[in-house]
């Protein structure tokens, strides 16, 4: 069964220091408690450090994994889940984050 995840992609902030303070000091602690209580199994937090082109569109990507699509949908529909998503919009000072729901497929590469 494919892993189900919520993906938030934050655009490059206008004020990097302000975003990073709010992301680490406010958003991550709040969201971690909410998502854990909703049954999330893992979070992968990525900071983008470069791009193949001259400019990058995103600064951070957060992937929150859930055991089922139903668990993810229930979390997103709950009051705490809505508050976490609203907070993500509030702290994203480079524009609204892109929010996606995805199923992950993993391919293991072997050295040959």
Task: Explain how this protein is built.
The chain is built from three helices and four strands. By secondary structure, the chain is of the alpha+beta class. It has a four-stranded antiparallel beta sheet with strand order 2-3-1-4. Helix 2 (69-77) crosses helix 3 (79-91). The model has no long low-confidence stretch (mean pLDDT 93).
Largest sheet, spatial ordering of strands: 2-3-1-4
What's the total helix number? 3
The pLDDT mean sits at: 93
The overall strand count is 4
Proportion of residues in helical segments = 25-40%
Categorize the overall geometry: flat
Which short descriptors sum up this protein?
alpha+beta, 112 residues, four-stranded antiparallel β-sheet
Question: Can you describe this structure in just a few lines?
Answer:
The chain is of the alpha+beta class and 112 residues long. It contains three helices and four strands. α1 (16-37) runs antiparallel to α3 and α2 packs across α3 (79-91).
Question: How is the secondary structure organized here?
Answer:
Layout: E1 3-11, H1 16-37, E2 42-47, E3 58-66, H2 69-77, H3 79-91, E4 98-104
Helix pairs in contact: 1-3, 2-3
């Amino acid at each position: 069964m494919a892993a189900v995840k919520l993906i938030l992609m934050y655009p490059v902030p206008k004020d990097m220091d302000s975003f990073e303070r709010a992301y680490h000091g406010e958003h991550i602690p709040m969201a971690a408690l909410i998502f854990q209580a909703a049954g999330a199994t893992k979070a992968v937090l990525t900071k983008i450090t470069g791009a193949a082109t001259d400019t990058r569109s995103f600064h951070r990507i957060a992937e929150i994994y859930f055991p089922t699509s139903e668990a993810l949908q229930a979390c997103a529909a709950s009051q705490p889940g809505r508050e976490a998503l609203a907070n993500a919009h509030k702290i994203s000072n480079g524009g609204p984050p892109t929010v996606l729901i995805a199923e992950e497929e993993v391919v293991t590469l072997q050295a040959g």
